[in-house]
Amino acid sequence: MITLIVALMASVIWTGVTAAEELPRIYTEWETFHEADGLPSDKTFSVAVDRDRVWVGTDRGLGLYENGEWTTFTVEDGLSHNAVLSLAVDPLTRDVWVGTMGGLTWISGGRMRVFTQFNSGLPNDVIFGVAVENQNVWTATTSGQGRYLVRKNSWEVYTPENSPQHEPWGYANDYHDGKYWAALWGGGALEFDVTTEQWQEYLDPDGHMEIALFRDDGIIHVITTGVSFREGLLWVSTYFGASSYDRMGTRRWRGYSDFDTGLASDFINWVSARGRVAWFGTDKGVSSVHYDTNRWVTYAPVNDPMDYTGPWEARVYQEDELIETVPLEQGLSNNFILGIDFQDDDVWVATSKGLSRGRWRPDMLGSR
Amino acid sequence: MKCVRWITALGFLLVFVAVHGDTNDEPERRALPSYGSTPEDLRPFGRFVEEPYKMFFVEPLEFTGPGREKPEPEVETVKIGLLTPLERTHEAYIGQPIFKGTKLAIEEANAAGGYKGKPYELVVRNDEGLWGASANEVVAFSYEDSVWAIIGTVDGANAHIAIRVALRTEVPMMNVGDTDPTLVETMIPWVFRNIPDDRQMAYALAYHMYRDVGYQRVAIVRADNRYGRFGVRQFRDASVRLGRPAPIEINYEVKFEHVNPEFTAQIQRLNRVNPDAIVLWADADAAGHLVRRMRDAGLTMPVYACERIVHPMFLDIAGEAAEGVVAGYPYNPDADIPELRQFRAQYRQRFGEDPNTFAAHAYDGTWMVINAIETAGLNRYLIRDALAEMDTYYGITGKAVFDDVYSNRRRVIMATVRDGRFIYNEPKLTVSF
Q: CA dihedral in degrees (B3, B7, B9, B14; nearest 10)?
């Protein structure tokens, strides 16, 4: 009887959610930004939202979008390098941490401070990922994980010598809910519990580069490219597909590939989660999936995946079954996606040729 | 059902023999039966799982990003980067021949008129082997030097670090000296490798040692770095899959001369285990010292090794103890190829020494890049495409056959020390990879 009541309640709740808003949402209105609009460069590596501001890392400087205007910052303004790979914003101080190909730049109060491997404890100057954890800042570099303790003005460096890193090559990182995560190139995913200061690594269970033995046995491949942790769910991206791990619940892994889901491509450069929806930036467009329903929405060029100037569409899948195709009046600026962040209900997407913004229009298609 | 299985098995056998036979014909790209030409009996979990959830590297890599539309700029020179260990590293004995082989190719291309009359310029950066430094060097190549492609590097860890940056800066990298199998097992569509890898070496050694010779217990001795760790991995796995797991795997310190110059611990363990033979993954000097100490200690078991020991340093250090040592080798320096004879003569005349495998592959790899530039023009994306379309290449090292991850799967051979020098293609392999 109790089971029946719980099931009925869940059904009511679920029906309510579905009626109000089926996830993932379908974004039908896209806006694009290019050099001609004020971006430092069309080649955008990263994007980070700070309330009403949007920071964009490009290969020729850092862009700031505020009040409808673009401002560019380069080495002439104090940036450590013009190629900006990664960005993070401190939600409390609104300080911006800029990971470049030539060091870390801290933007605070209108001033810039540069950290390099020669003037600080930064493990390496090429910073693929940066994440803010309370009063500390983590950097994912090719020589290990660097943790800058802002209040102490000191660094901690984590390598295979003092943490369980199969390889120390950091490629991306994330912090949320007391856990720091790093995607390691050749080292799977690495978890650091801030309270206990304990590390745990997650590797590909089959241990082989050339195969994935089973779909749901763990990380699909040991070469990982992104991590995102929200609502107890870990999402891991690779160039071989994606994986999720119910870290705080069932502790079960699930694998996702382009042939058995709506994923645009197995070559995934980036993953960001919002709630229980993960967004994947691939080489053939953007895909979003809801963990509980395995419903996918993929945004991709209609014809060839590289025909980004042609028509685009949103494809809705239930697992691997295409159930709906929605033409887009305006597509994304490019199919090769390198970064994603969220601004209220909108989504910002950094691509290899321009920046895109998906505007949430509940009065339109997505609210059905 | 049994009949179907027999027909399937027979079909596989025919394909396997056709591809792995010891004829001089190299396999064509599309005829490679599996990734790395892995035979059925060496397939991971092959005895337990009919087919894994996914098999990687069996479709051509693709780059779907923009950039091909960029116009060709005006330049004074056409810059090609070279990242290689030249000094302050134990791998300089590999990096120096790479530099020389590359230099010869660039000079020849310039003598032939360069690129549309513009000379090629080699921009050289030292790969010091310091952790992470290769990342900074590729950034400099990409943004400061504005090279069109990069050749290098040798160390497996540094090469991995370099290719990750090359993926972001979108510059083609031609590897001519890193035999770590995992280098190309990354899905990065900007990486090419023209030297056969340790996966092929390990398969060839395993088949020869277990099947042809019939050893039962083969011990593994390796350097305690990434080169040793990943070099022997496929041999270790192959030993298990062929039903003869290695009785012991012994490391030695890369800086052995400071901590263990006599290799005492390694020799004691070998003495205790008394294997039928040894597989050794080591640098030339360490291998020379180790083999000499082994023979001095009365250990007479045959030694099979990696291609790095095929070097005068190994012969000088090991002396008479080197006799009979067998090494896997990526190409046949005595092959009847006129261009190879000419290269060897030029190299000897220019540098006063014989070219080794790294010099020869650097020469071929540089010419591959030059040819790609001349086909594609000055656009990194189109140069990448031109390299990706290169299914085969006929160079001084023979016919290169590129697989779907752009790695040369030309069959490897063996070389044996006889009367103080290496004799190539001996022993002749019944099956090669």
A: 160
